[in-house]
Amino acid sequence: MTEYQGPAPIGTPPILELIDLHAAYGRIEVLRGVDLLVPRGAVMALLGANGAGKTTLLRVLSGLMPSTSGDVHLSGVHISNATPDQLTRAGLTMVPEGRGVFPNLTVEENLWLSSYSGQPVEKILTNAYARFPRLKERRRQLAGSLSGGEQQMLSLARALASDPALLLLDELSMGLAPLIVESLYDSVAEIAEAGVSILVVEQFASSALRVSDYAAVMQGGRIVETGEPGEIESKLNELYFGGAA
Amino acid sequence: MLSDFVSFTVQGLFLGAAYAIAASGLVLTYATTRVFNLAHGATSMVMAFIYWQLHIGSGLPTWLSLVLVLFVIAPLFGIVLERVVMRGLGDAPVSVSLVVTVGLFVFLVGLAQQFWPADKPRNIDYFFGYDSFPLFGVRVSYHYVITIVLSAIVAAALYMLLNRTRTGTAMRAAVDNKELLELFGANANRVSMLSWAIGSQLAALAGILLVSYTGLDYYTLTFLVISAFAAAMLGRLSSLPLTYAGAIVLGLASAYFPGYIHGGPLIQTGLQSSLPTFMLFAILIFVPQVRLRVGQVKGILAANVPTRQRTLVSAIGLLVVCLIVMPFLDPTNMLRLGIGVAYAMVMLSLVLLTGYGGYVSLAQFTFVGVGAAVVAKMDTTSPLAILFAVLISAAIGALVSLPVLRLTGLYLALATLAFGQLMDKLVFQADFLFGFGGTLQAQRVSLLGYNFNNTRSYVVLMLLVFLLMGAGLLVLRRGPVGRLLIALRDSPAACGTLGLNQRWFRVAVFSASAGMAGLAGALLAGLQGTVTPVAFATLQSLPLLLVAVVAGVTSVSGAFLGGLLLMLLPVIQATIPSLSGLVFLVIGVGAILLGRDPNGLVNVLFKGLRQLEPHLPLPPRLRALTAGPPAPAAEAESVPEAQVAGHGVA
Amino acid sequence: MALLEVTRVTVRFGGITAVNDASLSVDLGTITGLIGPNGAGKTTLFNVITGLQSPTSGHVRFKNDDVTKATVNHRAKMGMGRTFQRLEAFGSLTVRENIQVAREIHAGARNWFSFRKDPKVDELIEVVGLRRYVDHRADSVPTGVARLLEMARALAIEPKLLLLDEPSSGLDEAETKGFGKLLQQLAADGCAILMVEHDMDLVMGVCDLIHVLEFGKVIATGTAAEIRGNRAVQAAYLGFSDAAGIPIPDDVAAEATAIIGAHSASETTMTLPAVETERR
């Protein structure tokens, strides 16, 4: 793991580049030409009202849903129609909305399965327990019996097990107490410091913005704004409560 | 007597062990892919035939035949099955996934009939022949011991696989969330392929172990699936230990039963062979209620409902065509036309149940049998006999559906299968009905003093009844009941929150469908004069369902086409015996292909006809009939199946 | 006595507590809002009230009857109507047929074999404003329209209590305003409304009482003005926590108040996209 060097120098391809990406559920188009660039090593917060298409975008990026047109480049490599398992092994993985764990498997079994990403299981367990000691205490418990925060830790640990270059996080905070959300985002900041690029979709905008280098705003299936977290934060009210202050 | 007891116990353990192997394969595939493989027993049967072919037919040594079947052919079969037939089926409604596996069931039976015609007896010896060792004064066959040991090994191996290997863990995970498994980096399709490969292996193993006990034929092993269902149901289709327990109990019961309970042939063979069915039924009744689930609702493309005018024109057209054709039919073909019309009525009952309602009945012919039996027993020409036939069929239908309708479609379908088997083995053969292997005579109805002694007039009567039923069904479909059926299929949760008592509504639908089948049976009995229970065996209900789906289970014209096709099946088989298996093959493949398109062949025909139409020299009137409405959706109700009718019986 | 009383309801799924000792009540003729962040347990609470989910503990009383164990359809017959967050319109039926079915279920089996036209169907289509879409299949209309359809369908059973799960998502600004008026009209006609909603303009504008749910607990109850000034609510929405011992800087608190409080006076509402997309 390398020390965080700040955004990569000009000339290296961005970790993620989306060009005019479209996707639809049946006849209803949900992504209507998404253009986005995530610099290598950066944390980008993706904000937007319910229904703006954020979760759909993450589903398309992680291969769970096909795009209808447009291009996705991961480190300059075209990955438009790869399957989720291929993407995970190629270094792009997602922590899905809700709880991204198998509730009927134990903590250890969940981590064991993440070795499908190509990493040795011993390394996965060592890293996961070092980062989240709580998981070690609970390793023989069913994941479904963990608290929400612990499940989210497990979900993060699983995603990190694939040694990702780019991590997609969807609503880490859902249904969790603020203190737990804060501590999860501390972990996210640590992960970013270790050099992992992160695209995070979050309703708890302040938590996500706290750890972000950039922020983008999505509306009606398009990216309508990108900028520094500070600039975007001032537009939170429009995003969340539908009115200008 | 101790020796008897030991002997029965060993035999029971042998049977239970073999059932357990079969059942665990069924549970494995269901638990990992959510497809309930009705053709599991048929797989056992075909694998046993292949084993016979290699071992006896080609003279390969036992070990080589076993290795080939268990480790090459069966797993390959499972993999191909997953890739070609089952993939993505787990998310489909039960009415689709069940029909597809019924298609596979019939396909495999057809395959066996085609490749291994019933021209000579085929036998497979026990492993080590009749070698045995003494135990408490009885000789215990090595074959039994091997089976029991293998069953234990299979249990241990499955336990190890599912709990101690990453692949097995992935199999358990795949049930919960396939997408998540892919995000973990695993290839979910490969995982389900492996489940199917192992499932087929276990089916093959159970088949080979049992075949020397049951004998090699098309059906005994195929219906092994019921014993496996019963055992698997005890484990709620998920727990392997409970499944094993269920299998052993079932095995012991079927060994003790004939040993300790004595009675007539009905009790002896009937009751014994229905033990698994009883158990299945009992377990189904006690499985707890399933909650209404909120989920993404998908509309289903269904055939458009024709307007009143179109229905009328189509009905008159069909009647006229039949009247024109009839004088050219000899008595045999006239009878066949009548049978076709009766079958078409049964198909109509499936249009209501499956096409509109989305439920699957695997024993629709049993209700036909009830109707026929009632008419025969009443032995009168009064129309009251027909009325009674309908009412009794409907009442029995309500009884069957009552305990299981709070469950999902899969359980209802399995309950009908169990019901059909019980009727076959116990009720139809009882003295108060047909008697053991017996027949009954039935009289034709007379209306207002008119006796339909002439077959042609009786067929015209049947045709009229069919048309009335069809028109009635369409009226129903256009009205509140039709809308409710579709609504309930689309979102049970929303129907509940609007205040619909779903259980009674479903019982009513199932009962009405059973009544319609009973009416078909009542009229069929009058047509044929002689009624045998064989015609209403559960086994007949499966091709019925398939033909209905293939022809088009969402439309009345599909039902007519289906009725004629079903009537033609035995005709084709009798005319060209070498094709007897092939017919099943074709229907099986058809169901597998068309299972996902509920509108069926009739829809394909109409679409094709409409495309051809500009090039055909049709009279304007007919043209108007085949022309669809502007809507893009499938349109199915129209006339030209009459052409099929003429063609079919000529 | 309130029309609906939810008393200390808790729902656990495995180790997760989706609803935690929540109590609330809804009075006749009022509009009650239920707000809170995603995953706070609002939809689960709706499912408990309508009977799609049985609570681990607690009671639901409706019209002074304990209905905790009553079936879904029984509660509907008693006068509970609801819409769904993830739409449950009858996809293969047209918009008109959807409403017709609801009327027919309401009318009961006795009327299933008559083919008389029910004037109420057209009335509902007009009330909700669906005339343009009457002959479209329900699975082909935009989400906003489907939500209105579910609303009309729920109204078809003439409910005393109407539960709306995010009814305005997918509606544009003008439609949302009209929708708010419709809700007030219904309340004035004596219907009680309980609504889960993210559009704060709408919630603050029409609700007589607001309950705030956060990780399964009701953390605040009050009028729009009271809720606006409530720190716990600000924390729940913006992720700042004072309950957890992290002090909120005054400038941040002021900003949060501005965010939650300022919009109801505002005229420039952001237009929501016409389609709802976040589906699994």
Question: Explain this structure to me?
Answer:
The complex is a heterotrimer of chains A (about 240), B (about 650) and C (about 280). With about 240 residues, chain A is an alpha/beta fold. Helices cover about 35% and strands about 25% of the residues of chain A. Chain A has helices spanning about 55-60, 85-90, 105-115, 120-130, 135, 150-160, 180-195, 205-210, 230-235, 235-240; strands at about 15-25, 30-40, 45-50, 70-75, 75-80, 90-95, 165-170, 195-200, 215-220, 220-225. With about 650 residues, chain B is an all-alpha fold. Chain B has two domains: about 1-120 and about 135-220, no CATH class; about 315-400 and about 425-650, no CATH class. Chain B has 27 helices and six strands. In chain B, the strands form three sheets. In chain B, strands 1-2 form a two-stranded antiparallel sheet. In chain B, strand 1 and strand 2 (about 140) form a beta hairpin. Chain B starts with a helix and ends with a helix. By secondary structure, chain C is an alpha/beta fold. Chain C folds into two domains: about 1-80 and about 160-220, 3-Layer(aba) Sandwich (Rossmann fold), CATH 3.40.50.300; about 90-160, no CATH class. In chain C, about 35% of the residues lie in helices and about 20% in strands. Chain C has helices at about 40-50, 70-80, 95-105, 120-130, 145-155, 175-190, 200-205, 225-230, 230-240, 250-260; strands spanning about 5-15, 15-25, 30-35, 55-60, 65, 80, 160-165, 190-195, 210-215, 215-220. In chain C, the strands form two sheets. Chain C has a six-stranded mixed β-sheet with strand order 6-7-8-3-9-10, with helices on both faces. Chain C is globular. Mean pLDDT of chain C is about 80; it is low at about 240-280. Chains in contact: A-B, A-C, B-C. The interface between A and B is medium-sized, with 27 and 17 residues.
